[in-house]
């Protein structure tokens, strides 16, 4: 990282201890201030009290309701450049991030050089996708291959959602807790890169998980 960034501050918003510790060690020498938070409120606190040049976040682990909410949140701090650092991503998520103006994306499996390239590009107002993210974009069939990563239980819950059952009704039918169903729903949305039930159902039809006649919105 160049010396010119040693006058800037950065915040990492993530809930994974090892990620926070590794990046704190790696990036603290590069910035005037490098802070780690695990919540939206914690991030807001730093953005309000000082000028933050860079936010690195795995938004799915922080309490943002959607990519749109993240985009609206960051619009209020237009001088702060965002970098998405995530465990996995899909075509749909990349497009949604791009639509809200976030165009610097790398994976947690990427190496040190990819991280620094992404940070450098973000601080210069340029776009950067890591090699792994570009590979995802180049795989034409990838969006529907994503459906194969669902577990048997998750596929069953998708089908229950398609039949019009509420979260409470699914919990009763499967003899599991409401919280467990909500956790499954969150994981399904994350894996498939969708943000609403109608979007999930249309995706499931295209992926062959359900038939057109099965679902109710």
Q: How would you classify the helix and strand content by structural class?
A: alpha/beta
- Total number of domains: 2
Order of helices and strands: EHEHEHEHEHEHHHHHH
Q: Strand arrangement, largest sheet?
A: 2-1-3-4-5-6
Examine the coordinates and then state which fold CATH places here, giving the name of the CATH topology of the largest domain. Rossmann fold
- Strand tally, please? 6
Oligomer: single chain
Q: Which CATH architecture of the largest domain would you pick?
A: 3-Layer(aba) Sandwich
Radius of gyration: 19 Å
Number of helical elements: 11
CATH structural class of the largest domain: Alpha Beta
What fraction of the residues are assigned to beta strands by DSSP?
5-15%
Low-confidence stretches: 140-144, 212-217
The best one-word shape is elongated
The residue-averaged pLDDT reads 86
What does the model show?
With 217 residues, the protein is α/β, with parallel strands linked by helices. It has two domains: 3-138, 3-Layer(aba) Sandwich (Rossmann fold), CATH 3.40.50.2300; 144-214, Arc Repressor Mutant, subunit A (Orthogonal Bundle). Helix content is 50%, strand content 12%. The protein contains eleven helices and six strands. It has helices at 17-27, 40-49, 67-75, 91-99, 112-123, 131-138, 142-145, 152-162, 167-174, 178-192, 197-207, and strands at 9-13, 33-37, 54-57, 81-86, 104-107, 128-129. A six-stranded parallel β-sheet has the order 2-1-3-4-5-6, with helices on both faces. α5 links the parallel β5 and β6 (128-129). α8 packs across α10 (178-192). The protein starts with 8 loop residues before the first strand and ends in a 10-residue tail after the last helix. Residues 140-144 and 212-217 have low confidence and may be disordered.
């Amino acid at each position: 990282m160049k010396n010119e960034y040693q006058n800037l501050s950065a915040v990492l918003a993530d809930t994974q201890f090892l990620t926070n510790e590794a990046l704190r060690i790696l990036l603290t020498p590069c910035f005037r201030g490098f802070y780690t938070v695990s919540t939206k409120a914690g991030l807001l606190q730093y953005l309000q009290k000082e000028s933050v040049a860079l936010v690195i976040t795995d938004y799915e682990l922080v309490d943002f309701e959607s990519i749109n909410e993240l985009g609206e949140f960051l619009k209020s701090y237009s001088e702060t450049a965002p970098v998405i650092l995530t465990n996995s991503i899909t075509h749909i998520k990349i497009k949604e991030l791009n639509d809200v103006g976030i165009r610097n994306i790398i994976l947690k499996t990427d190496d040190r050089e990819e991280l620094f390239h992404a940070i450098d590009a973000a601080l210069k107002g340029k776009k950067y996708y890591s090699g792994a993210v570009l590979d995802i974009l180049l795989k034409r069939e990838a969006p529907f291959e994503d459906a194969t990563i669902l577990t048997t239980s998750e596929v069953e819950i998708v089908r229950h959602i398609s039949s019009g059952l509420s979260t409470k009704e699914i919990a009763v039918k499967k003899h599991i807790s409401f919280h467990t169903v909500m956790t499954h729903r969150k994981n399904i949305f994350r894996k498939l890169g969708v943000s609403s039930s109608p979007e999930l159902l249309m995706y499931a039809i295209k992926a062959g998980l359900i038939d057109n006649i099965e679902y109710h919105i």
